[in-house]
Fold these 2 entries.
Entry 1:
Amino acid sequence: MSDIEISRRRLLGTVGAAGATGIALGAVSGAAGYVAAAGDPATALATVGSASEAFHGEHQAGITTPLQSRGHLIAFDLAPGAGRKEAVALMRRWSATAARLMAGEPAGDGDTGVALDAGPSSLTLTFGFGRTFFDRTKLTARRPVALDPLPAFSSDQLDPRRSDGDLWVQIGADDALVAFHALRAVQKDAGEAARVRWQMNGFNRSPGATAEPMTARNLMGQVDGTRNPKPSEADFDRRIFVPSAGAEGPYAWMAGGSYAVVRRIRMLLDDWEKLPLKEQEQVIGRRKSDGAPLTGGSETTELDLDRTSPDGTLVIPANAHARISAPEQNAGAAMLRRPYSYHDGIAADGTPDAGLLFVCWQADPLRGFVPVQRKLDRGDALSPFIRHEASGLFAVPGGPGSGEYVGQRLLES
Amino acid sequence: MSDIEISRRRLLGTVGAAGATGIALGAVSGAAGYVAAAGDPATALATVGSASEAFHGEHQAGITTPLQSRGHLIAFDLAPGAGRKEAVALMRRWSATAARLMAGEPAGDGDTGVALDAGPSSLTLTFGFGRTFFDRTKLTARRPVALDPLPAFSSDQLDPRRSDGDLWVQIGADDALVAFHALRAVQKDAGEAARVRWQMNGFNRSPGATAEPMTARNLMGQVDGTRNPKPSEADFDRRIFVPSAGAEGPYAWMAGGSYAVVRRIRMLLDDWEKLPLKEQEQVIGRRKSDGAPLTGGSETTELDLDRTSPDGTLVIPANAHARISAPEQNAGAAMLRRPYSYHDGIAADGTPDAGLLFVCWQADPLRGFVPVQRKLDRGDALSPFIRHEASGLFAVPGGPGSGEYVGQRLLES
């Protein structure tokens, strides 16, 4: 055991073993819903560093895990000449690294030391396969229809160099150095097998910044995520995850998995911030202060979509973002939005290069993201203030069983 | 009072009034030293959001304030045609905004709402003047000698577009949205008076990520800041702050102030991470695991600079970073290093655009940063792994008294 390993273990010993305690904490926070800070504030705050998420399980971590305060998204393409064999070895390396890091252990020999002193800090690593992965590995017959390219939307201004990719990794943690440490470990593991295609950084609220757990806000200042499906809802699993029971056929390897749609959505903040509060609220259809619908109540009150003002106009305008994206306006289409905000300083045109790393999860993109985005694309009052700049769609297999690596059921069956 | 203001106040009411309680917390954490997470972990964690720093006082906040987990640096140039009058109005606006935001209140009408729900989260805004500010405002006679340009160092590869500036603002907070909110408020206040010259984002460890407060680590994995002067040391104030007592003459306006040297130091992580641990430790002169000198002990043990190995070589090599930068090797030159790490994704050459937003504070740069950097420039073993890419030097006046704005003693005397 190296000096570094001893030091890390010693630290973790002082806050509780990373194994049983950590996983139990993860399970508890997972049930608490999609809020920026997990669980009861008094206890959550004492466990920022020591909280850990389980690597093994029916689903990969990082999907129902509460939003972490720091995130990285990174996509790779397999190197020229690399195929299925190299992909198997890579997924083995990545799985072993993820299991270690998520338990608060170093990555192995040559660990950079950046995460030393800290606990796992709810670190998650989540792995997905892009459409192009299947041709490269001669697994085209097993490529799910759900990975067919997303339709083009009229408002898209996508940069192909920051879109798609053979492989995708989502990293989240409640400490920026723990997240960066994991990012570098993933890059190191890629070795000669895969090359970075694009990489983005994001953030959310810090645990304990609010007095109690609250729905996240985005960089426009809006409460964002109120209508997200909740794990406590009866149809949550069916909507978010590919069914595990009775899976057969060429896509059986996706049992317990989910599809991630990733969109880099630039917010045109210089324009948005010039809009008076009342007009911003008309665009969204909700109050900025607390996220309540313009038809009244609190954040979680249902939208009263038919209510009119004395002058006969709709209180929640016909093109309000909340109306157009409401599940009941989209045949119940539902996706679990789990975004990070991003801010990469100032763009060449002098405006803030900031917005949302939108990541949403669903059992089928054609019944989740696509119909909602198609509708938003046609008439969302928010459209003039945002710009979709990059896009990706990834098949994220179920969580690995004990002794398994992520994607084994695809790569070795 | 707007909806937003009511909402914010209501929230703060649940965690203690932002005034007396918050300022008291700030004072406590300030005394705890320069660690990533402030104070006793059990209580610090419960106060991430509600902790606040005082805007008024002998010194500006953000100098001896414990490192926050998120930071922004932004520099402005006065707009063409703008002079002293516009500068006065701008410093008044910025001071009013800083006082409100640091107390957890909205910025005023048109607040973006991004910080809603959160407490002040130890937010600090710190304002400085660059050398060029004094000519623009016809205050050249009051420009301190200490603002003379830094000498050129042989290893500099400075980008002038990301260096210097008439005005500089350092923002820090323990929540990324609170920090971003402040950044946008500062930009809005600039209005037509000043234009953004450059802007950078940084981060440190999250409160509670370590089981107890620890010295920060940088993205090379090194413990960084062990030898920082401590406020408990008798000569701390003399080294860091311009004396307040008996200040006279053209620079009297700097009483209680400090000089900030800002360097964007790129870390060549692809090269560094290939270096074996033992060689990394020879470069630094300290163990990576716990920051202890290679001559033994713990992090805070003195370096034994004369100790040799049985083969006659120095245990802490002659060119080790810790040796060359040691105060006792630099006639006691001391500066308070208070950096943020940065990571802006992947640079055009495929390497990580990451490193240190080095910010150091001293009463006189010619007795702080300059002699140490000159020595490092000649023989630091770390030099091949870093690159200074931007530089700034700013006069940061003392903290404002009640009813004063920052810089008033310069601009109105």
Entry 2:
Amino acid sequence: MKITSNIFEVDEIKLGNNTETIVKGGRHLFDKLPEAFLGIQQISIIGWGSQGPAQAQNLRDSLDGTDIKVCVGLRANSSSLEKARAAGFNEADGTLGEMYAMIAESDLSIILIADAAIAENYERIFNSVKPGATIGFSHGFVIGFFKNIGYQIRDDINVIAMCPKGMGPSVRRLYVQGKEVDGAGINSSIAIHQAINDHAMAYALGWAIAVGSPFVFLTTMEMEYRSDIYGERSILLGAVHGIIEAIFKYKIDIGVSPEQAFKDTAETITGRISNLISKHGLKGVFEALDEKQKEIFITAYNASYTPLKDILREIYEEVYSGNEIRSVILYNERKKIAPMGKIDDTYLWHIGEQVRDKRQGEVNDLDPLTAGIYVACMVAQVDILIEYEHVFSEIANESIIEAVDSLNPYMHHKGIAYMVDNCSTTARLGARKWAPRFDYILTQIAIPAIESKQIKHEAFKAFDQHLIHDVLDTCRQLRPSVDISIKD
Amino acid sequence: MKITSNIFEVDEIKLGNNTETIVKGGRHLFDKLPEAFLGIQQISIIGWGSQGPAQAQNLRDSLDGTDIKVCVGLRANSSSLEKARAAGFNEADGTLGEMYAMIAESDLSIILIADAAIAENYERIFNSVKPGATIGFSHGFVIGFFKNIGYQIRDDINVIAMCPKGMGPSVRRLYVQGKEVDGAGINSSIAIHQAINDHAMAYALGWAIAVGSPFVFLTTMEMEYRSDIYGERSILLGAVHGIIEAIFKYKIDIGVSPEQAFKDTAETITGRISNLISKHGLKGVFEALDEKQKEIFITAYNASYTPLKDILREIYEEVYSGNEIRSVILYNERKKIAPMGKIDDTYLWHIGEQVRDKRQGEVNDLDPLTAGIYVACMVAQVDILIEYEHVFSEIANESIIEAVDSLNPYMHHKGIAYMVDNCSTTARLGARKWAPRFDYILTQIAIPAIESKQIKHEAFKAFDQHLIHDVLDTCRQLRPSVDISIKD
């Protein structure tokens, strides 16, 4: 499985124990986009959720001055019509319209509606595509869903994916920041699920570069949805929430004040720890500790790695088996009678609000217990993905880079509970389901082990020589370091 | 769907809004057992877990003096061989032997091995049965499993179920106590999944009566496994654990001492509340409160009924869809590398041990907050089962009677964590999965509502006129009230 291109330079890089083909992005490549999109006159972005506004605007900006028209398609009477108009798409010049009409007239339709909406409307969506045209997704969910229901995709269209490894707002913001720092952006994976002509790969690459990816790697839609659904249930949302709940409770039990306990957990993860990992990798966290703190880190790491890995393995298997996708579909059927409530009204998150309100630019201490558990979780998450043979680009982006460079900075600003309450339905369901499991396994297994100093595992021994450190170093060299700007 | 019998008296009773056929048990019916088991010379109990020892001994005692031989079949080299010998089964007289050999020579083989073992060995088990013989289960799991894998059962054998609505040790203990109080025992459901002759129903009834059921009702194996797997994930194990975790934490947060918080939650549920429900029904709990406490109960009930019902509905759907059974199968494949840890080493359960050690026969206060939430959970569990059209006998037994008359008294003695750590794999997995969800939904939704006095729901309005009260009254009249004796 290799990226091939006559248009963009393809690099072979060593990542972990594999060689991968990647394409480095950047604004200097935008003049090659018309060649990459050969045969495409109209690209339509369908949906205006998280990725929709980001990709539609980035594509339009990148293709400015070419003959390729970038449009937005929405449900008739969609409440997002006004927002799309405010972003400059409009019915008058034909860049805004009803979604099925837009799909029917486009050469590339990029479907960015919610998973649930795909599950409800897939037949009409696929039937609307012109023969010979291309349909694109930013998530492999649809393939997992089709596997579940046994749906066969028609064979006269290209089916591709371009999946930014960060939330929509980050995709847009870093693209804008990229006007000053060329190459700033969110990395993406591409996948060619079905190719009916030689253009499919070029379209996927052009799409990734136009959206602003610093580097593009290859996966399959099957591997993408597994790692993506697994990732959001784990470190990106579920695990980070559960880890904070467990350690916060423990800190309170041993007499730490609530505000300090919040600083020692949520604040340090979304702030200092993320920043260190982003700039110096996982070892950077460990190296920033003094000797006594290093001991605490090692104990916490050893006590938590194995129980966390057990939950992570369970999550991966539940995703792989189709159970998680079935659960999402079941929820969509019952949501009218049992809508999800918010999680943000608990004691922990109220303390969090107070802490954020009082922030004055101070740098939080690096709590070694929290750091040990959080880093153990990232490594365990990586180890499961290695077992299931994901490529290292996907592993590093889905388990670490997306967390520290996209979600955590956003959560640092708005709060973790806010993020959990406002992400996609698939992710919200997953976070609700798995956060408590991470909390309980830490409370039941890891914390008693730390307390009693009865640590049975020596997982930390494998940390120093872990393949992931070099992988992160390489990934870091592939994109400029930019502190993402976060605004409301 | 009706019970029919020429041997035992069949009663029609009104339960809820339905009429059901039931058979009342008792020792006075034991002399009819040879007639019920017409054509059966040998009954083999396969497995020596929770139900195995209870049913094998009860059947042997009940059939004492008849020509029917009751045997036990185990894996060659099973570690339980010694225990079965200690209970009087032995190779010398042919009442103990290798399981497949036992199945092959039996007219009725009762398969009481773990779900996981059934999932692994089902082909050999079913292939070993003599043509024309009968295979029996005490759980519908196997049918859910077969639905999952698409396995077709051979059509030359009877397939029946007799499912005691209580754990094995209770089935044995109440049977022994029943020697003094005729009719004491654990209620059972029966199901005829496949009948190749007219005897199937009589065999199921005979089996139920021989094991000591005070009353026997009819269900299907499909409905049985749904209600059973749902029930153990809910009030029987998962919900009771999660409810206690949430309220305990809340009580600590508002300044209650840990010991008192444990008494206000776990102790009151497994002790006073269970006792009141067992003797006086759900209304008995409410009536035992003073006016001020009644207000707290109503607030707690109203704040928690809807969020609890949301989780309960999710559980039911996950069971119904096959997801939960698939999860159990997935666990069986990974258990060697990721065995389940114990839950009993946390602060909460350590406090519990201390509280139990200090018990001196005192009657705990009836905490109205805990009572309101616990009773709301039972009613919500009942309401979901009514929606899915289970018969009221099954609803009452699976949601209430099994809890207050079998599991809770046992947990009162040994601790809830002990129970969760020592039940069947299917149940342990379910309790681990769902207890944290009950905890989180209460912490995130119900407790903030109670605290802020912003209760949006008026679920309690339906409590007074609920059908379940009459159903419980009727069920109570069908079996003598016996305080189950609990020994280690």
